[in-house]
């Protein structure tokens, strides 16, 4: 038994060396060939990779150009007023193009307090934390001023989406639907600061007198 050992060793070493040469898989050897794969099953199959060349198509590229008018899922923005705040003729729409519900107002309040209040403050008077001594960011206008009250909802949508002068755009942080909810809440805030007796429901009017 021991007599055979050297022979086996020699056979083993020779076959390892041979395998290395055949497969080119010695360390440091660069090879374009795939490693030896004894049972390939269907592990590797011919396929194209993006941006690769192809002899099959006329322009020599694997990737096919998009058919004109192709729109990615979820990006069909046919409702111009909802997505731009402008009507077909390019004018800012007067009021929000969404249904006014209590849930929407709540959502608007929550989003307003997250995204707008740092600068505009929770009551919208423009004295948010960013206008304080430590930050000294440009003080925004008071939402209860006559000029801001007269803005159309479409214009405010545009301000949130694209920013205005010193105010940055919030289109990447705030989805379209939430922008309209914020505007609804902003209107509620404005109303609360300029309310008249007629805004108080009848059953509460006596209490306020
Ligand atoms: C980083 C601070 C900041 C945040 C956050 C911010 N604003 Fe402003 N906003 C400003 C400043 C500053 C101005 C004044 C811009 C100017 O006149 O240079 C302004 C102006 C405005 C105006 C008046 C635009 C005009 O034409 O005069 C509206 C309306 C407004 N913001 C709404 C919002 C709403 C709604 C949000 C939340 C989605 C928001 N802002 C978030 C800083 C901010």
Tags for this entry?
209 residues, binds heme C, 8 helices, 39% helix, mainly alpha
Could you explain the architecture of this structure?
With 209 residues, the chain is an all-alpha fold. It is 39% helix and 0% strand. It is built from eight helices and no strands. The protein has helices at 5-23, 80-84, 102-115, 117-120, 146-149, 153-162, 176-193, 202-208. Helix 6 crosses helix 7 (176-193). The longest helix has 19 residues, at 5-23. The site of heme C has 24 residues, from helix 4, helix 6 and helix 7.
Oligomer: single chain
Main pleated-sheet profile: none
Bound molecules: heme C
Name of the CATH superfamily of the domain at 80-195: Cytochrome c-like domain
**CA distance, first residue to last residue:** 115 Å
Could you state the order of secondary-structure elements as H and E?
Answer: HHHHHHHH
Q: Uncertain spans, ≥5 residues at pLDDT below 50? A: none
Counting DSSP E segments of at least 2 residues, the number of strands comes to: 0
User: How much is the average pLDDT?
Assistant: 89
In CATH, the topology of the domain at 80-195 is named Cytochrome Bc1 Complex, Chain D, domain 2
Proportion of β residues? under 5%
CATH architectural category of the domain at 80-195? Orthogonal Bundle
Radius of gyration: 34 Å
Structural class: mainly alpha
In terms of topology, how is this protein built?
Layout: H1 5-23, H2 80-84, H3 102-115, H4 117-120, H5 146-149, H6 153-162, H7 176-193, H8 202-208
Helix pairs in contact: 3-7, 6-7
The structure holds heme C (HEC).
């Amino acid at each position: 038994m021991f007599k055979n050992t050297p022979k086996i060793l020699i056979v083993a070493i020779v076959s390892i060396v041979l395998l290395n040469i055949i497969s080119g898989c010695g360390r440091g050897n660069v090879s374009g060939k795939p490693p030896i794969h004894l049972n390939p099953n269907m592990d590797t199959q011919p396929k194209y990779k993006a941006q690769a060349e192809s002899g099959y198509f006329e322009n020599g590229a694997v990737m096919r150009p998009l058919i004109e008018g192709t729109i990615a899922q979820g990006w069909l923005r046919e409702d111009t007023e909802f997505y731009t705040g402008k009507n077909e003729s390019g004018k800012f729409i007067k009021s929000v193009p969404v249904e006014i519900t209590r849930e929407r107002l709540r959502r608007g309040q929550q989003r307003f307090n997250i995204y707008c209040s740092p600068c505009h403050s929770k009551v919208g008077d423009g004295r948010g934390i960013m206008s304080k001594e430590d930050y000294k960011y440009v003080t925004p206008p008071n939402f209860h001023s006559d000029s801001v009250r007269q803005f159309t909802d479409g214009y405010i949508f545009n301000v949130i989406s694209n920013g205005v002068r010193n105010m940055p755009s919030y289109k990447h942080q705030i989805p379209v639907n939430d922008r309209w909810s914020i505007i609804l809440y902003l209107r509620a805030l404005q109303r609360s600061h300029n309310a008249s007796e007629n805004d108080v429901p009848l059953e509460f009017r006596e209490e306020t007198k």
